[in-house]
Every structure is written in C-alpha cells, then in structure tokens.
C-alpha cells in the first residue's frame, strides 16, 4: 500500500495588508476657499463629472464601454481618441485637473509670532 504524503505547507493565519489598502489620516479639518462664483453660490463640483473622488471616477470609467467613453470625452470637451487606454488616461488627467482647480485649500496663517533676533541671526548664517 502506498504511503500518504504529508503536506509541508503551513496555513497562514495572519495576512499582511498591502500598502494600497492602507490609508493615512492627518486629522485636520479640510476647508476649501471658493474660487468661482458658482462655488460661492453652493456648487459642490459634482455637476460636470458626478463626483470629486478619483477612485469613484476610475470605477465609473472601467464600467463604460468604448463608445460610452468617447461620448463622455465629447461631453467633457475634448476630441476622443480611438485607443481606450489613452482615452482613459486623458480623462483621468482632465478629472484631476478639474478637482485640483475646484478644491483650492484655504490658506491659514502660520502659527507663531514674530521671529526673535537670535533666530534671525541663526537663519542669516546660511547666506
């Protein structure tokens, strides 16, 4: 009778998290300064693309077929190309430009008072 071979693999119980699945929180309240009149009147930035989240927009693009992508590119305002990968990259870069222009962070004054004479002396040594 043949002997049964024992498996040498041990089951892994602790799976390590990949870097993509981890997120970091900075703990600051994000306030944005309005840059257009539409923003002052309450525009949230969801009208042109439907979202301001990059991952959500990429998921939407993945769900579209080629003709839908070309129609979406036409609505956004640029001439669509025939290659799906190139078209998707262009749409994502246009989306990122829109979001970065739409959500200008509010500039807050730096915490601190006037610089002392000793600090000015130390800083001037590097000149």
Please give the alpha-carbon distance between the first and last residues.
Answer: 87 Å
How much of the polypeptide forms β-strand, as a percent range? under 5%
Q: How many helices?
A: 6
Secondary-structure element series? HHHHHH
Structural class category: mainly alpha
| Main pleated-sheet profile | none
Number of strands: 0
Q: If you compute it from the alpha carbons, what radius of gyration comes out, rounded to the nearest whole angstrom?
A: 26 Å
Poorly predicted ranges? none
Average pLDDT score: 77
In percent, how helical is the residue content? 40-55%
Q: Please give the oligomerization state of what you see.
A: single chain
Spatial shape: flat
Explain this structure.
The chain has a domain of about 50 residues. It contains 6 helices and no strands. The chain is an all-alpha fold and about 130 residues long.
How would you describe this structure in keywords?
127 residues; 6 helices
Layout of strands and helices, then pairs:
Blueprint: H1 37-40, H2 46-49, H3 54-63, H4 66-76, H5 84-102, H6 117-124
Helix pairs in contact: 3-5, 4-5
Summarize the structure.
It is built from 6 helices and no strands. By secondary structure, the chain is mainly alpha-helical. It has a domain at 54-105.
